[in-house]
Design a protein that fits this description.
The protein is an all-beta fold. It has a 24-stranded mixed beta sheet that branches. The longest helix has 10 residues, at 73-82. A hairpin with a 2-residue loop joins strand 45 and strand 46 (480-489). It folds into three domains: 2-170, no CATH class; 197-266, no CATH class; 269-413, no CATH class. The radius of gyration is 30 Å and the shape is elongated. Helices cover 2% and strands 58% of the residues. The chain is built from one helix and 49 strands. It starts with a strand and ends with a strand.
Length: 520
């Protein structure tokens, strides 16, 4: 450890109506500590700003500025005697504490604050504890970060591991392109703003009592009381937990984007009952199966009854002759069949086979794709990363985010498919017997397109593409008109085959906003 000589800067000022002279001195010091790769730096600085930046250095290099204010020389000397730094730890964990700060429990006629500028090795973990500051900033650190501050803002940038930040009377700003660990950002009276790259994969939890929750990322999720739980892009990944009692919460796309939209104002795409995992129940002529967590695979069949399980740590094979099925997370393959009732399925890790003869189907995500069919009802799939087939005997089909091929067909209803923003090309087949087909693709999406509209109103039912390159022909067949658009967009790619009877077809590149799933 090495200390350089302190430099004292003395500033005198007049304060108060009595013109009492206040003595103020600022002392500058420099410190240097060795730190092993992956070591931890702990700074306890009750009063004053802190800036810690990860750099290509082997040691901790710190400059600090101690400002002492007192009404006279005697009290100034008292403050100097009772102030200082306490240094502890070793090359694995370095600890620095600023001693003798003013507290609310023992008011003193003098104040001492310390401003820190610190450079640490990038591999270091950092912990900062503070009571009052204008700002605490930590940037470019690859290890874990932990910050607590009662008064003042917390700014976190380009962090690469688990992060925890808490402030009572301050706002928190987090800016990291792709979080690599779980992140917790919490304040009571301030706001929370997280800025993350639009193609990062993570879960998002946001809670505020009196504030608003806004985002311009393609979030999908639902409210549970005052808490919003959702995801961005692929399921899984780290969790971003943001909370403010009185302030607003914002999740923004790095590099800018459209105006953030309030989650509370997003139109819901489906209305399903809340998943409730309780205990197994039964009654005469009825057998329900209700559990919070099952640690093995589940195989269950009943001629009449509901199945509601929050988490299955294996495969699931469920059959009910009449009843609804609600499954939260299934870690293996999932096969669900109901002869009459709605299906609500959460995150399915394995191949999914879901069918019902009558009822709506909602699936949060399926990692390996699969088959989803209903003889009469709507289908809403929020995310898939495997080839998926969807078929409805009469109802809308919505695929919120597809990172694999899609085959969707309904006898009557609209089909809306959004291709994952990172996909360059995917096979898409969509056919509706009566309704519209809308496919939202990235601006650079490449495909060989064959789209057909069969209509009795050629002026009302039209084909529109935001991407040029298609030729459109019209053919009169009896009392109907066949409008066909073919060609390559963006140089071509996988086959996109679309067909609508009595409706429009549109290939759009519009940005996708948040999706709110309403559950009561």
């Amino acid at each position: 450890m090495k200390k350089q000589a302190l430099i004292a800067l003395i500033v005198c000022s007049i304060a108060g109506a009595s013109s009492a002279q206040v003595l103020r001195k600022t002392l500058q010091g420099d410190l240097k500590y060795t730190l092993e790769p992956g070591g931890t730096f702990i700074l306890d600085n009750p009063l004053g700003d802190v800036e810690i930046v990860g750099a290509e250095v082997a040691d901790i290099q710190a400059s600090y500025f101690t400002t002492v204010s007192a009404p006279n020389e005697a009290l100034f000397q008292e403050a100097m005697r009772q102030s200082g730094l306490v240094e502890a730890g070793d090359a694995k964990t370095r600890v620095v504490r600023t001693a003798a700060m003013t507290t609310n429990f023992r008011p003193r006629p003098w104040t001492v604050s310390v401003k820190w500028n610190v450079r640490v090795p990038k591999s270091a973990s950092v912990r900062v504890a503070s009571h009052s500051s204008n700002r605490i900033r930590i940037a470019n650190v690859m290890g874990n970060v932990h910050v607590t501050n009662f008064n003042g803002n917390v700014v976190l940038a380009n962090l690469n591991a688990a992060t925890f930040a808490e402030s009572v009377n301050g706002s928190i700003f987090y800016n990291t392109a792709r979080p690599r660990g779980n992140v917790v950002l919490s304040t009571v009276n301030g706001a929370v703003t997280a800025t993350i790259h639009g193609d990062a994969d993570f879960k998002w939890v946001a809670k505020t009592v009196t504030g608003d929750i806004r985002t311009n990322l393609p979030v999908r999720g639902t409210f549970f009381g005052t808490t919003f739980r959702g995801g961005v892009n692929a399921p899984g990944g780290p969790t971003l937990n943001t909370s403010s009692l009185m302030g607003n919460i914002q999740l923004l796309s790095a590099g800018g984007g459209p105006t953030p939209q309030s989650i509370r104002s997003v139109p819901t795409i489906v209305d399903m009952p809340t998943l409730r995992g309780v205990s197994q129940t039964s009654s005469a002529g009825r057998a329900d199966f209700k559990k919070n967590t099952v640690t093995t695979s589940v195989k269950y069949a009943t001629s009449l009854g509901d199945v509601k399980v929050a988490r299955i740590r294996g495969e699931a094979e469920i059959f009910t002759g009449a009843g609804e099925v609600q499954l939260g997370e299934v870690q293996g393959a999932c096969k669900v069949q109901s002869l009459g009732g709605p299906l609500q399925l959460g995150e399915i890790m394995g191949l999914l086979t879901a069918s019902t003869r009558a009822g709506d189907i909602l699936v949060d995500s399926t990692r390996r794709g699969g088959s989803i069919t209903t003889d009469g009802g709507t289908i809403s799939l929020l995310y898939t990363s495997g080839p998926t087939r969807l078929k409805s005997g009469g109802g809308d089909i919505t695929v919120r985010q597809a990172a694999a091929s899609i085959n969707a067909e309904t006898s009557s209803g609209d089909i809306a498919i959004t291709i994952d923003a990172k996909s360059k090309s995917e096979t898409v087949e969509a056919k509706t017997g009566k309704g519209n087909v809308i496919v939202n693709v990235p601006a650079a999406f490449g495909a060989d397109v064959d789209a057909t509209i069969i209509t009795t109103d050629p002026t009302g039912d039209t084909f529109v593409s935001d991407i040029p390159g298609l030729s459109i022909t019209r053919e009169q067949v009896g009392g109907t008109t066949r409008v066909r658009a073919t060609g390559k967009i963006n140089g071509g790619g996988e086959k996109v085959t679309l067909q609508a009877t009595g409706g429009d077809i549109r290939i759009s590149t519009g940005r996708v906003g948040p999706t709110l799933v309403k559950r009561r």
